[in-house]
Amino acid sequence: MPASHRRAIADIIACRTQVLGGHLWRCDQCSAEVFAYHSCKNRSCPKCHTEQTQARLDRRKTEMLPAPCFHITITVPEELRPALRSNQRDGYGLLIKASAEAIIELARDRRFLGGTVGVLAVLHTWTQQLHYHPHVHCLVTGGGVSADSRSWCPARNGFLFPLKALAKLVRGKLRAMLRCRRPDLVLPWSPWRKPWIVHITPWGEGEQAILDYLARYVFRVAITNTRITGLDDHTVTIRYKQRESSRWRTCQIAGDEFIRRFLQHVLPKGFHKIRYFGLWHPCNRDLAARARLLLLLDRPAPPETSAEPPPATNPNDHEAPTKPRSAEPPVCPHCQRGHLIVIRRLTPRNPMGP
């Protein structure tokens, strides 16, 4: 078992338990005590990404471009999946790189866009029933900056580029990259002769569409606690959404099989499943700033509205907008009237200690 799998198992078991320590809170009204234990912060844990998701959304909101976006999904054929699973670090990395480079190359073609687009690529390896299914989700700007960096080239009538052209280009680039990086791999010939599955759909426009994409795809894990509907000594019951009927179904999985399916989606240590290319690459911040300026200049001026005075605030009102909500103490879950106050810090328990 890889070290990353062992670490994920240990972290998830210890998550929000006394092993990791925490804080003891006491209500100032009913004197009830509440134990709040720390989270493991493992990226495979289904309980530790709420605050992380919101923090990334706040950071990326100002960096996104006010332009239409497209959602592109690129799926690896079944014949290549065993090779990717056995060589995850190289295989996953090259798959993301080949997908992004193919998108940028087609977008620079004058027949389609004629400019450099921004690409946000996210790797997923699972299905609703936790089967192994590696694919890449890409958020692509519906336009790009021209070669001379003087104009914005928008997508025409919601069309980015042909699906077949993208599928062939990704297939050829991934094959060339695997031959260069891993010449020792023996790969079957059938996936290079069959068409790959690629989907391109309009996603929305502006910063809100990008934030919805980030919240939906970037921090998703293989399964969340809400999808586990039953549990006993031998089996686990999960619910999943059937693609054909778009209805929720349930399936029962043996305990060891459930653990096997879940662990095959734990990525190697240090592997980045979220990567930025094109305008969103860190090296192209100046170009992205220029693209944002071009888009803002092309926008029509908003209609003039009468300035409204700011709402009056009561200095005795504890819900005043000037006071951040994060500064308010949490409400007691027992009496629902008092507030919790930190009494002491709970040190982590070391299971290997005396």
Strand content: 15-25%
How many alpha or pi helices?
8
> Mean pLDDT, as a whole number?
84
The end-to-end distance, rounded to whole angstroms, is 28 Å
The gyration radius over C-alpha positions equals 25 Å
Total number of distinct structural domains = 3
Low-confidence stretches: 306-326
| Helical residues, percent | 25-40%
Q: Largest sheet, described in full?
A: 5 strands, antiparallel
Structural category is alpha+beta
The string of secondary-structure elements, in order, is: HEEHEHHEEEEHEHEEEHEHE
- The overall strand count is 13
Globular, elongated, flat, extended or rod-shaped: what is the shape?
Answer: globular
Adjacency order of strands in the biggest sheet:
8-3-5-4-12
Structure description:
The protein has 354 residues and is α+β, with helices and mostly antiparallel strands. It folds into 3 domains: 1-48 and 332-354, no CATH class; 63-222 and 271-297; 223-264, no CATH class. It is 30% helix and 24% strand. It has 8 helices and 13 strands. The strands form 4 sheets. The chain has a 5-stranded antiparallel beta sheet with strand order 8-3-5-4-12. A 3-stranded antiparallel beta sheet has the order 2-1-13, with no helix packed on it. It has a 3-stranded antiparallel beta sheet with strand order 9-10-11. A hairpin with a 6-residue loop joins strand 6 and strand 7 (152-154). It is globular and about 70 Å long. The two termini are 28 Å apart. Residues 306-326 have low confidence and may be disordered.
